[in-house]
Amino acid sequence: MIKKLEAPLIPLAERIRPKGFENFVGQSHLIGPNGPIKKAVNNGAVPSMILWGPPGVGKTTLAEIIANELDRPFYSLSAISSGVKDIRNIISNVKNQGIFGKGNALLFIDEIHRFSKSQQDALLSAVEKGQITLIGATTENPSFEVIPALRSRSQVFVLKNHSKEDLLKFLNLALMDSAIEKKKPVLKETEALLRISGGDARKLLNAFELVVLNLDENTVEITNELVQQSIQQNIAQYDKKGEMHYDIISAFIKSIRGSDPNAAVYWLARMVEGNEDPKFIARRLIISAAEDIGLANPTALVMANNCFDALQKIGWPEGRIVLSQCAIYLALSPKSNSAYLAINKAQSIVREKGDSSIPLSLRNAPTKLMEELDYGKDYLYSHDNLDKLHLQEFLPDEIKGTHIYKPKQNKKESEYGKLIEKIWKGKY
What we know:
51% helix, Rossmann fold, globular, alpha/beta, five-stranded parallel sheet, Helicase, Ruva Protein, domain 3
C-alpha cells in the first residue's frame, strides 16, 4: 500500500501568506509604488477602509500586512460568528490600554456585509473618535451592505481577481513550501488549476495542495487530467469551506433559467448548508426575475422583490422557505430575456452612434428663445392624440425606426407584439 503524504495542520494558503508588501502578489493599483494604500502606510496615516473584492484576492492578507507595517495592535473578527458584544469588548480593551490617536488599534472585520445595522452602528463612535481604524472586507457592494454613516467615514478600495500571471506566481511560491517539496511535484500543465481557481488564489492553492497530497510515489507530474480526476474524487474536501461560491450560484441561476425546480432547490440547499449569505441569494433571484423571465411574467420581479423583503423581516432559518418558494416559482415561470437584450442593444447603439440629437419636438421649451428655436414644436400630447401616436418620432433621426425591443414568443409578449403592431402600423 502506498503511503500518501499527510495533510499539514495549516493549509498551504496560510503557510505561504506574505508578511509584507514586498511579497504580496497582485493588486498593484493599490499597493504599487503609487498605490493609495502603500502611500498611506508609508505616511503612517491609514484611514478606515472597506476592501471590496471577490474571494481569494488578498483582503485578509492586506489587512494583516498593514498592521505589521504600522506595528499597531491588531484585532480580527468574523461577521459570521461575532456580535455587538464582541465589538464592544474590543473597543473597551483599546480604551483600557490607552491606545489613542496615532497609535490607535486596527480592527479587521471579515465579511462585514453580514453585520446587521445595529452591529455596524456599534463601530461608529470608536471610528469617529479615532480609537480604532476599521478595515472591513466584503465580497458584496458596500453601497448596499455597509451603512451610509460608516461608509462615509471609510475609503472604499476595490480589489481585482488575480491575473493568470499572478496565479502562476502563487504556484511557484507553493512549489517552494517545505511540505510540498517532499513530494517533488512537477507542474507539467497548469490550465486546469487556473480554470478551477477562477482568479481566487486560496481556491487555487487548496486545489493544488489537494492534488499534491494525492500523488503517489510513481506519479510526480501534475497534468490537467490528473487535476480534474483528483478534484472530482475529493470534491467534498475541496468545497468544505464554500470555496465554490460562484460556481454554485451559477448552477442555481442556470437551473432556474432552464426551468428545473428540482435542481434549483438542490443548489439552494447547497448554499443554505454552506452558510451562504441569504441576502446574496435573494438579490440574485431578483436579477434572474428581470434578466431571464422578464416580460414573459412581469409578476416574477414582484415575487422576487417581495422575497427579499420577507427575508429581511423574518430572518433565518425560516427565510430559507421563502427563498425556496421564490426559486420554484421563477423556475416554473415562462422565460424571456427580451428586456435584457433590448437594453444591451440600446447601449450598443449609444456607444456606436454617440449622443445622437434629440428631436426638436421632444425638447422642453421653458424660455422664449427656445420656443423661437422650435423647441417642442409639432409635439403631439399623447393623451390627446392616441390615434396619431404613430405619426410622431421619438427616436433621434440617426436611428429612427430601429427595432430595439423584440417580443419573444410567449403568451404575454405575443400580446405586446400585437399591441406594438396596432400602434405603430409596421414601423417597428
